[in-house]
Amino acid sequence: MNALKSKMNGSASLKEILSNHAIHVVLIALLLVVIIIEPSFLSLTNFTNILSQSATRIIIALAAGMVLIIRGVDLSAGRMIGLAAVISASLLQAPDYAFRMYPNLPELPIIVPILLVMAICGILGAITGVAVAVFKVPSFIASLSMMLILYGMSSVYFDRPPYGAQPIGGLTGEFTRMATGSFNIFGFKLPYLIVFAAVVCVVIWVLWNKTKFGKYMYAVGGNPEAAKVSGVNVMRMEILVFAIAGLMYAFAAVLEVARIGSASNITGNGYEMDAIAACVVGGVSLYGGIGRVGGIVIGVLIFTVINYGLAFIGVNMYFQYIIKGLIILLAVIIDMRKYAKRR
């Protein structure tokens, strides 16, 4: 009888595990299909390319994940990246480039435009945070409004005479090397982009797990009222989270511009959806209070591998959108079921 009961408990446990990780099972199965169709997908070059493509997305997803953890959502991420991209690119064009936005501007140290766009996006993020924390505007509406404002700002800045709405290119070699360069370690080339992403991951992990900020962030996301009673300044935390997210979006934008080699007002378009999707797949709850750095990183890598793999075997772009949408829907359904069980 005990053996039967143990077996039944084991089956229930296995069923629960499969239910909680159904999205990962589906994604692994999809990846196996890609490998079976095209075994050459498993190569060191492809692995490095996937990590490089994931680098900026990881930084963006970590920023979006912070907002999700405090029960918010930030739809302005992509447009904030676009604004930071056009500003930083316009200030980092080579002096001899014929179509410089600022012909008489001396060549600036790279750190100056980086700090400038981080300051701008940090302030804009804080403004969204104020709308949410002080004026109690739902984060969906506040960030949607900011998304439209940012797109307008970046478009006005981008579409300036005398050249009009032309992609901002001609970036300095030193700047583009931030993304295209690599360390040579025992014959293996480790791209700078991966190093930047790794450093950001470590800093955010420490911030979330070893500081009062992280403790308060999870407390606010888990139960804002209980956190307030416990002495946490919920209003300040919400503003601070949105501001830090803005800083991270700006830094990711700079790296993305260096990687692509140009910028326009549509740079970053839709990145917020990919970031939120990667967070949910990586275990961040839409109901707040739950989320880990490792899970978010895995979520981004999963999506990058799937996108890269489907493109590698020649799947039509439109079908890729359908598959991605189904993955997001499944991830949200699983998250909602977990939340219902906790209640």
Protein architecture, described:
This protein has helices at 2-20, 22-37, 44-69, 77-91, 111-133, 139-158, 173-180, 192-209, 212-222, 224-229, 234-260, 271-281, 293-312, 317-342, and strands spanning 182-185, 188-191. A hairpin with a 2-residue loop joins strand 1 and strand 2. With 343 residues, it is mostly helical. The protein has one domain. Helix 3 packs across helix 12, helix 4 crosses helix 11 and helix 8 (192-209) packs across helix 9 (212-222). The model is unreliable at 3-8 (pLDDT under 50). It has a two-stranded antiparallel ribbon. The two termini are 32 Å apart. The radius of gyration is 22 Å and the shape is globular. The longest helix has 27 residues, at 234-260.
Keywords:
343 residues, two-stranded antiparallel ribbon, single chain, mainly alpha, 2 strands, disordered N terminus, globular
Quantity of strands, as a count: 2
The rounded distance between the terminal residues' Cα atoms is 32 Å
Proportion of β residues? under 5%
Biggest pleated-sheet summary? 2 strands, antiparallel
What percentage of residues falls in helices of 4 or more residues? over 70%
**How much is the average pLDDT?**
90
Helix count, DSSP H or I runs of 4 or more residues:
14
| H-E order | HHHHHHHEEHHHHHHH
Topology readout:
Layout: H1 2-20, H2 22-37, H3 44-69, H4 77-91, H5 111-133, H6 139-158, H7 173-180, E1 182-185, E2 188-191, H8 192-209, H9 212-222, H10 224-229, H11 234-260, H12 271-281, H13 293-312, H14 317-342
Antiparallel strand pairs: 1-2
